């Protein structure tokens, strides 16, 4: 899971450095594969310690976080893009930083 999350971070960073549409589509395709590899383990990890009766409802809330992520992306777009010289690229770099925080937290959790 850590290796997959590391690939996820590098592909997120790479999205911000793409120079044309073909490069961007190739990197985002690989990013989608890495994201798919993380969804199952992330869901299992998030729900493993919950009471059995609450797992169904909280699993549904976990799936809705994808939509909330789109809303947060719109908010960050309005906050970051007009204020930086890098434009849309800053969104991907910001996202990679947040993923790196998650990777560090997960690594610490696994070593306990």
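Q: What amino acid sequence fits the structure above?
A:
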């Amino acid at each position: 899971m850590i290796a997959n999350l590391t690939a996820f971070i590098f592909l997120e960073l790479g999205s911000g450095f793409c120079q044309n549409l073909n490069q961007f589509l190739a990197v985002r395709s690989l990013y989608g594969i890495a994201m798919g590899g993380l969804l199952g383990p992330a869901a299992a990890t998030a729900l493993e310690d919950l009471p059995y009766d609450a797992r169904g409802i909280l699993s549904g809330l976990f799936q809705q976080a994808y939509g909330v992520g789109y809303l947060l992306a719109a908010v960050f777009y309005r906050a970051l893009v007009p204020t930086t010289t890098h434009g849309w690229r800053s969104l991907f770099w910001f996202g990679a930083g947040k993923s790196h925080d998650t990777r560090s937290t997960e690594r610490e959790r696994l070593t306990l």
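Q: And what stands out in the fold?
A: The chain has four helices and no strands.
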